[in-house]
Amino acid sequence: MAHRSSITLLSALDNDFKELFKIAADFDDRVERTPETTLLYARFIAGVVRREQLLPIDRSAVARVIEQASRVVGDADRLSIGLRGIVDLLQEADQIAVSAGREVVTAAEVQRAIDAQYRRGDRVYRRLQEEIGRKTIRIETDGEEIGQVNGLSVISLGGLTFGNPSRITARVRLGRGEVVDIEREVELGGPLHSKGVLILGGFIAGRFGRARPLSLNASLVFEQSYGGVDGDSASAAELFALLSALADAPINQSFAVTGSVDQHGRIQAIGGVNEKIEGFFDACQITGFTGRQGVIIPVSNIKHLMLRQDVVGAAQEERFRIFPIETVDQGLSLLTGLPAGEPDADGNYPTGTLNHRIAARLDSFAAKAAELVRAAAGTEIHK
Question: Which of 153, 166, 235, 276 is catalytic?
């Protein structure tokens, strides 16, 4: 069975392809997770055990395999129909049970097989985590910083995907209303990442640029990033760093953020949410849990959560938390501990709120820019 991208490419490049292969069938790679499909999955597992002459498998192991089938597609409401991977998992769990002298395969053997599959391919990921622990790669998991936030990205290595925390920083100064994406300027930022930066610029202009000129210049960068950056899943984190710099309000470094943002300030779903959460969890495990750490995700990603058992356990013990948000203001309040503030009928924000501080900072930039223009005009007249 050919991959759909290969079929699309051949159709575009080979004129004879459509003549030779007239009927195309595009099969889905997942099904809805319902009681009926779950039962069918359990029957399939039982069939594999009989056909491959594996050890008997108990109900906890069946449940763990089905959970992994949801994990593979990154959706708690769907199941993967990539059955070859399920068969491989059952065979490896069986071998682990045989080596341990077990007579029945349980969830513990299935989990050990899953862990072994990741362990065989995570050398680069473990090296990155090791360098975080050694402070070679600087990731803050405690304390407060102005204009700095922990963003999250994903790394794909073969068939495995891992989360990677990144330190995103922002600086602001007097300028002409430009938000400079340093990644794009040095041609390390892809088009989707550049689009995300332009969108957050649109959000700031729409919220704060109606009553004042935006006389600022801002710069955004992924610190210690030496490869390409693409995707818009860090646009919310970049916006939080920028707003923190404008408000001169420190961000709690115990949090990491993932999510894209639209021009109206709504936080939108992203991919790889499980791997991203686990990447920051592992970084916190290396640097030391404080009981205050967690990840901020879009509300629309809740249905995709299929986390590792150790992350679930830490969340149950309240050593690590996951915070779903819907808007920029919710995330900003959570990160800074200060109210964002709602505008009144005239568009003014309450004193002491973050949005008021941002508006006041932009007003000071605009006033300074006007003063410089007047001074330049006066000098010209004097001449």
Answer: 276
**162 φ, ψ to 5°?**
-130, 150
DSSP 8-state class, residue 300: G
Per annotation, catalytic residue among 70, 153, 219, 233: 233
| Same domain flag for 108 and 164 | no
> Partners of 148 in the beta sheet?
169
Q: Which residues pair with 169 in a beta bridge?
A: 148, 221
The answer on 75 and 151 residing in a single domain is no
CA nearest neighbour of 151 among 183, 186, 174: 183
Statement: the pTM of the whole predicted model exceeds 0.85: yes
Domain count, the chain: 2
Tally: H helices and E strands in the chain: 14, 13
Distance of CA 5 to the CA centre of its chain: 25
What percentage of the chain reaches a pLDDT higher than 90?
58
Question: pLDDT (tens digit, 9 = 90+) per residue, 133-171?
Answer: 999 999 999 999 999 999 998 888 777 888 999 999 999
Q: Is 18 a catalytic residue?
A: no
Does residue 8 lie within any of the structural domains?
no
Q: Could you list the residue range(s) of the whole structural domain that residue 108 is in?
A: 26-119
169 and 31 belong to one structural domain: no
Q: Cβ(139)–Cβ(151) under 8 Å? A: no
Specify the pLDDT at position 383: 57
Q: Judging by beta carbons within 10 Å of its beta carbon (0-12, 13-18, 19+), is residue 71 exposed, middle or buried?
A: middle
d(CA 260, CA 79): 26
219 is a catalytic site residue: no
**3-state DSSP: the chain helix, strand, coil percent, rounded to 5?**
50, 20, 30
156's enclosing H/E stretch is strand 148-157
First to last CA, the chain: 79
Is the pLDDT at 225 greater than 80? The verdict is no
Looking at residue 100, which CATH number applies to its domain? 1.10.8.60
